[in-house]
Amino acid sequence: GAGVSQSPRYKVAKRGQDVALRCDPISGHVSLFWYQQALGQGPEFLTYFQNEAQLDKSGLPSDRFFAERPEGSVSTLKIQRTQQEDSAVYLCASSSGRVPRTSGYEQYFGPGTRLTVT
Amino acid sequence: AQTVTQSQPEMSVQEAETVTLSCTYDTSESDYYLFWYKQPPSRQMILVIRQEAYKQQNATENRFSVNFQKAAKSFSLKISDSQLGDAAMYFCAYRRGGAQKLVFGQGTRLTINP
Prior knowledge:
The complex is a heterodimer of chains A (118) and B (114).
Chain A: E1 5-7, E2 10-13, E3 19-24, E4 31-37, E5 44-50, E6 53-56, E7 65-68, E8 75-79, E9 88-95, E10 108-109, E11 113-117
Parallel strand pairs in A: 2-11
Antiparallel strand pairs in A: 1-3, 3-8, 4-5, 4-9, 5-6, 7-8, 9-10, 9-11
Chain B: E1 3-5, E2 10-14, E3 19-21, E4 24-26, E5 32-39, E6 46-52, E7 60-61, E8 64-69, E9 74-79, E10 88-96, E11 103-104, E12 108-113
Parallel strand pairs in B: 2-12
Antiparallel strand pairs in B: 1-4, 3-9, 5-6, 5-10, 7-8, 8-9, 10-11, 10-12
């Protein structure tokens, strides 16, 4: 089946604009993650959903960042009043959510959305 | 908090040779998983190999193998018979057992010289 898809692949926003980034996880995957990857850095965790429940949002950098997954499938990451420091690649990942011990329950990543705030 | 450190920002290797990428981590947990991910220019993260902390045997996947030294908190990746398609950013990552999120290192850019 299809992998994780994200749209748009590229987004340019003027400072102060609101943006919405979409993630379509692998069908049937229970868990969904958002990560932020600054240029030349490793990804950093933003938030995690299990089905429609947002179980961990400890990585969201400010209250301008908001994520939702209302029906337990597609997720949207919204950034309000964008700032230049929000420029980064936003990665979405999904996993089956089942934890047979031998699997370590792999996260499958999408291609990311590169956000540039000018 | 758990941290992952990759001390080699860049590495290069001749095609068909072997290269080792270093990773150290800091945790007080006994139950955790370690991963190496590859990120080509297309940006899509691909899982290369994973290691469960409770397993003493080092994981291997074809040309990729790890040297897991639990006491030293070291998790290096060895790539044998390097191929041009191996060129990418490589990230070491940690996940605590029972937790969800991955903690990534800063990455190592691997160049393969033909």
